[in-house]
Amino acid sequence: MDISLDIQCCLCHVMSQPQPSILDRIFNVLIYIYAIVITRVMFLSFFLETIRFLIAFGLSLITAVFRCAISPSFKDISEDIILITGGGRGIGRLLAVEFAKHRPKQIVLWGRSEEPLKATSKAVQCHNVACTYMVCDVSDKKQVYEKAASIRSQLGVVTILVNNAGVVFGDDVLDSKDDDIVETLNVNALSHFWTVRAFLGDMKNRGRGHIVCMASLLSFLPLPGAADYCASKAAVASFAENLRLEVRRDGRSDIRVTSVHPYLINTDMFAGLGNRLEWLLPALDKDYVAERTVKAVLTNQDLLVMPRIFYFFILLKWILPTESHLLACQFLGQDTAMETHHRRIKNK
Ligand SMILES: NC(=O)c1ccc[n+]([C@@H]2O[C@H](COP(=O)([O-])OP(=O)(O)OC[C@H]3O[C@@H](n4cnc5c(N)ncnc54)[C@H](OP(=O)(O)O)[C@@H]3O)[C@@H](O)[C@H]2O)c1
Q1: Domain boundary residue among 69, 101, 127?
Q2: Which of 144, 219, 225, 347 is disulfide-compatible with 237, CB 3.0–4.6 A?
Q3: How many angstroms separate the CA atoms of 227 and 176, rounded?
């Protein structure tokens, strides 16, 4: 459009001459034809781009429907080195064992405490898969970069990165300690930036990579008493979404990003949480969460919400008026659920 504006200015200038010469007139006509052609070409290319977008958009919807009906085949991970943060306990340990069943080249575990990491490492080795561990606090970017360099030099390129480490303290905004808020955001959200910055370049050079961001349903829904945790998980959801678009923009279909959003899981993290709908929506089984997460990676699924009914609840949240949403949260006991959280009671 800018080009045709320039042409119009040029035309006005020629037309404003008192007595245009024959050369001016020819120039005038040529410019006019050029302007028309340029405008038409631009319109045509936008039109073609729109058609191409609509076809691709429609195909993506059809593919998604087929994915629900027919489970895609698993990708081969026999050449992959997998790094799992927070691999010592909870979901991290189960993810390591579940990945081991699919025979990757190597699994590396990061965590703060050595003993649980050693135990997970033994459990993985029972599946005849090489497994090493490193004590690494993912909230400390210096440690992340140093340990990443030592993996690179000793083992090779990490091609599957599972950002799983997480913490929750469970206090209201005013009762929280400053340090707890900072730690929550550092471990749960900022660490994803450090690990991805440490490994994504290698993945791109290798032409193969998968980044898993362990988020939560609380990326989309509130839980008073865990505002810092919810904010950190919302940040993870946004991080994953942005990263996915960045690699797509760069034409890197060889790099995948999966964000995982589970509802309450029966690990220690949210032990004691009040759940008014326990009879209807019991906590997810941790083995199931690990199995579904690994399956999402093996089938290149971008977004995983567990259980599926929450896809609908999340949509509902955005279309309901705020007042109706708040009333629903109170009815479901979301506002008081953290009052019985074990860590919160212990801290009192
Ligand atoms: N449990 C749930 O209901 C639930 C629901 C949705 C999403 N999630 C998410 O799922 C992930 C795993 O949760 P989980 O239930 O397995 O929790 P968990 O049992 O408490 O385990 C947390 C893991 O994170 C590690 N970790 C914590 N801080 C770390 C740090 N600074 N550096 C390195 N590792 C650190 C811990 O290692 P150490 O043992 O060394 O401390 C531990 O292995 C978390 O991201 C969590 O937010 C959990």
Answers
A1: 69
A2: 219
A3: 10
| Integer angstrom CA distances of residue 326 from 111, 170, 335 | 37, 20, 9
Asked if residue 292 belongs to a domain, the reply is: yes
Residue 76 is assigned to a structural domain of this protein: no
Establish whether residue 86 lines the binding site of ligand 1, counting it when its CB lies within 6 angstroms of any ligand atom: yes
Residue 3 has pLDDT above 70, yes or no: no
Residue nearest to atom 2 of ligand 1 (CA): 265
> CA end-to-end span of the chain, whole Å?
65
Cβ–ligand 1 distance for 111 under 6 Å, the answer yes
Measure 136 CA to ligand 1 centroid, in angstroms: 14
Residues 6+ apart with CB under 8 A from 98: 290, 291, 293, 294
Range of the domain at 37: 2-69
Cite the beta strand spans of 29-116 per DSSP E. 81-85, 106-111
Same domain assignment for residues 58 and 189: no
CA 101 to chain centre: 24
pLDDT in tens, 94-121: 999 999 999 999 999 999 999 999 999 9
Cβ distance 290 to 94 under 8 Å? yes
The pLDDT value given to residue 1 = 47
Evaluated on CA atoms 266, 240, 182, 314, the torsion sign reads: negative
Ligand 1 centroid, distance to 93 Cα (angstroms) = 10
Same domain for 169 and 215? yes
Count other Cβ atoms within 10 Å, centred on residue 305. Answer: 20
Peptide bond connecting 222 to the previous residue in cis, omega within 30 degrees of 0: no
Residue where one domain finishes, among candidates 35, 69, 103: 69
